[in-house]
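Reminder to self: tokens first, then the designed residues, so the page reads top to bottom the way the pipeline ran.
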């Protein structure tokens, strides 16, 4: 199946490379070149980047921080990653704009739906930072929200070292089987924690399919964009 406009969700942890935290510029540039290759095939691309390489909720729990404050820190982490990826894409010649739902006009454009659609019409890649702009919502939910707002044909959920959805945890069960196709209802009923319930419900409501795949395999972003048989396809 051919797609035109895709929304790529990238794991923040993957940007750290072999390190546990921070940003590895070599890794960021590698992913930027892969995204450039997809862009040059005529795809319109929006990107949401996680922030787990910089800040995670368990760190907040360790110091007794309340959930809302921790979430705002996580949103700021996604802005840092969005800026790193957006600037790298521009450096290699890809027209890119970073937009953030948090008001930081000195570093990125504020997210406005009509402006974002205008950027797409002008052939630019969009990198979305700052989550939804509100605490208590994950970057999974941000991804499904932006996909709906941008009229995306498909969400590409690029995981860090996870090549799809399994019937059980493959790290625990060596006989775990990869599920090639799955409905969102089955995902929810089987409690397969590949994306949160709010994000899944939004995808159902807006009839947006999701492809879950391993972003660390060279060329997988291109294969996913072209609808090749990799990972797990989530459908309504």
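Designed residues (236 positions):
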């Amino acid at each position: 199946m051919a797609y035109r406009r895709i929304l790529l969700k990238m794991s923040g942890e993957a940007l750290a490379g072999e390190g546990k935290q921070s940003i590895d510029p070599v890794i960021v540039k590698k992913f930027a070149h892969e995204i450039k290759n997809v862009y040059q095939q005529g795809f319109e691309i929006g990107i949401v980047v996680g922030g787990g390489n910089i800040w995670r909720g368990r760190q907040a729990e360790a110091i007794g921080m309340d959930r809302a404050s921790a979430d705002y820190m996580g949103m700021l982490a996604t802005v840092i990653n969005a800026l790193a990826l957006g600037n790298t894409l521009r450096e290699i010649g890809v027209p890119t704009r970073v937009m953030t739902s948090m008001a930081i006009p000195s570093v990125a454009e504020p997210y406005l739906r009509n402006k974002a659609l205008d950027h797409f019409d002008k052939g630019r890649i969009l990198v979305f930072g700052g989550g939804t702009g509100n605490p208590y919502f994950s970057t999974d939910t941000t991804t499904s929200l932006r996909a709906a707002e941008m009229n995306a044909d498909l969400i590409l959920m690029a995981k860090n070292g996870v090549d799809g959805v399994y019937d059980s945890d493959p790290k625990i069960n060596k006989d775990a089987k990869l599920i090639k196709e799955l409905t969102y209802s089955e995902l929810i009923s089987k409690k397969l924690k590949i994306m949160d319930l709010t994000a899944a419900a939004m995808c159902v409501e807006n009839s947006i399919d999701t492809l879950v795949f391993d972003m660390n395999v060279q060329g997988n972003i291109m294969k996913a964009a072209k609808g090749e048989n990799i990972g797990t396809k989530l459908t309504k």
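The mean pLDDT is 92.
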